[in-house]
Amino acid sequence: MSTPFPGFSTPSAGPEAPLEMLSVCHDRMARQCATLRRLVPHLALHGADPEARTAAANVMRYFDTSAINHHRDEEVDLFPALIESMAGSDAVCLHEMTEGLTLDHRALEAQWQRLRITLAQIAAGESAPLASSDVEALVGLYERHIEREDTELLPMAARLLGDDALANIGRAMRERRGIAEV
Fold this sequence. Notes:
Helix content is 77%, strand content 0%. The protein is mostly helical.
């Protein structure tokens, strides 16, 4: 279950509540990571059977689209809005946090691209070894990253960002995903 944030009357996973949407996305990332972990022993026992191919294709679709959009939501919209909210203040810790999270995104994307090659082979029905160490490298990075965002970034954003900033972030999220204005 996602973490509720102050200022939202009802939990929502859409761009009308962008911080909640980011949190819900973390839950989805964790489920995709769990699927990757289960895929390792499944492949060892069953090879690239239909279930493995489907799982690989679903994980690829998620990380090729939703995860990329999530990183952009944060880097292009949330991080700058947070920094703007601190204008005139000493925002050194906020700059360090957003820069660190951005570096995490690049590391996650690089690790994903390495793992994606094997998953594409599996999705195509080829027998390809999915190394537990490669899966754990990606999953471990995501676990640490999500933990920091859920415990530090999103609560800070809920405290610092006003309704206008949140509306602008939500609007950008809708545009990024091609969702019509509500």
